[in-house]
Design a protein that fits this description.
about 450 residues, Chloramphenicol Acetyltransferase, 6-stranded mixed β-sheet, alpha+beta, globular, single chain
Length: about 450
């Protein structure tokens, strides 16, 4: 029986259905996991969430709809592997085959069990989600519901189990108009924010953006490539401490974004022969909902907000500039304006028709509850959080969301950073150079 919640319309989700982004968060633990019980909990939560039991029928950016769908295949898997991190990359590379095997269920859950004699009790729960249904925070909400139900059943706590199921039933997708009305503060000024965005300086000095007119030629070749994640895991703590010595209030997210800016600047100068003084511009993904609202709503409630700094200053000073921009756009709700403008552009069916002078998009997938509790799963110890992404854009409208350097960051314990990238529509060698330079900057902090 398909749950009865109606699915609110977000034009961003129509666009995401064309971008075909398959993102995987892998949570690594030490201990013993009851895979049969985990599968049962995964099935219970999946069957409870109305949106997971629907599919999009897409005609155009401004003409798509959600329809009930129940004919799904196998979407829970167990893999024994000698190396969890390598297996995650392989899993991501064949992610669309995995999803196809489930008849396109929006969320597959894969347990990666270590067969390494040196780490016999390690396993990862890899949660592979389709972005047309969920953003990263929504996926995180579902992951915790599965874990909470597992813990409740493992401990025989029927009251806790009932609370989890009630929380799952509560989740729904509110349409864009209703959500924007709910989010606007009393002093929200759409016109002033739109003027801010129109006058905000941006430039793609290093030509990281893939031009719209090249996509018809690139996309068929891209579809034929095997797309392995390009990523690194590096200790971010020395750089964070260095920046906070000078500017104590800068966030970890601002520091990591500043390192990305410096890496792009360095590559522009050393590999692309660009002038010594120039700006670096991109977009940072901003969550529109508070943690409390995330208990009620799932969907793509995110905004892509322009962010520009000079490239030549020290990383500490770039981090301060990043931090100040983020504080500003949240205070003025410029992020909400960005969301509204995307919804409006999709309504006019014009997304993906013009180039944007931006070098990158960065999104932060930190799971703060995971980081706060090393005993998240009953009888197990939390070890790390890894990530990987695959994409298969269907047209220029979808590709326009991902046609530049797209970076995913998430921290594990002790500020171990997983820095991973979407596959490049043009050439993954660009991504490899960027990841190597980011890693070098962190190591040499």
């Amino acid at each position: 029986m398909v749950p009865t919640h109606s699915i609110g319309k977000l034009n961003l989700e129509g666009l995401m259905s064309r971008a075909e982004i398959l993102f995987t968060a892998a949570y690594v633990f030490k201990g013993q996991i009851d895979t049969d019980l985990l599968q049962s909990c995964f099935s219970t939560i999946s069957e409870t969430i109305a949106k997971l039991n629907h599919q999009i029928q897409f005609k155009a950016q401004n003409d798509f709809s959600w329809h009930p769908f129940e004919d799904y295949g196998q979407c829970f898997h167990v893999i024994d592997t000698p190396h969890i991190e390598d297996e995650l990359k392989k899993l991501s590379a064949r992610g669309f085959d995995v999803r196809s095997g489930s008849n396109n269920f929006p969320m597959n859950l894969v347990v990666l069990r270590s067969s390494d004699p040196g780490a016999p009790d390690q396993f990862a729960i890899a949660q592979m989600c389709s972005h047309e249904f969920l953003d990263a925070r929504s996926a995180e909400t579902l992951f915790h519901l599965i874990v909470d139900l597992y813990n409740a059943r493992k401990e025989g706590n029927t009251a806790a189990e009932a609370e989890v199921l009630e929380a799952a039933h509560r989740l729904h997708t509110l349409d864009a108009t209703e959500m924007c009305s709910l989010l606007r503060s009393e002093d929200y000024d759409l016109d002033a924010n739109a003027q801010d965005l129109e006058s905000y300086a941006v430039a793609d000095i290093g030509d990281y953006g893939v031009r719209i007119d090249t996509l018809p030629e690139l996309l068929p070749r891209f579809a034929e490539r095997t797309r392995h994640p390009v990523s690194c895991v590096v200790d971010a703590r020395p750089m964070i401490e260095k920046c906070r010595e000078k500017y104590p209030d800068v966030t970890k997210n601002a520091v990591i974004t500043a390192v990305l800016h410096k890496a792009l600047y360095n590559l522009n100068v050393t590999h692309k022969n660009k002038q010594g003084e120039h700006i670096i511009s991109g977009k940072t993904v901003s969550d529109l909902l508070s943690p409390e609202m995330r208990k009620d709503y799932i969907g793509n409630y995110i905004a892509f907000v322009p962010l520009t700094t000079r490239g030549e200053p020290d990383i500490e000073d770039i981090a301060k500039a990043v931090h100040e921009r983020i504080v500003e756009f949240k205070a003025k709700q410029i992020n909400l304006t960005c969301f509204e403008l995307v919804e409006a552009a999709a309504n006019e069916n014009i997304m993906g028709t013009a180039d944007e002078e931006l070098s990158y998009v960065i999104t932060n997938w930190n799971n703060y509850r995971f980081l706060a509790d090393k005993n998240l799963i009953h009888g197990c110890e939390s070890i790390a959080h890894l990530s990987a992404v695959n994409v298969d854009p269907k047209d220029a409208g979808g590709a326009a969301l991902i046609n530049r350097a797209i970076v995913v960051i998430n921290l594990s314990f002790n500020d171990q950073l997983c820095f991973s990238m979407f596959p490049s529509l043009r050439n993954d060698d660009e991504n490899r150079l960027l990841v190597a330079e980011v890693e070098r900057l962190f190591v040499n902090a």
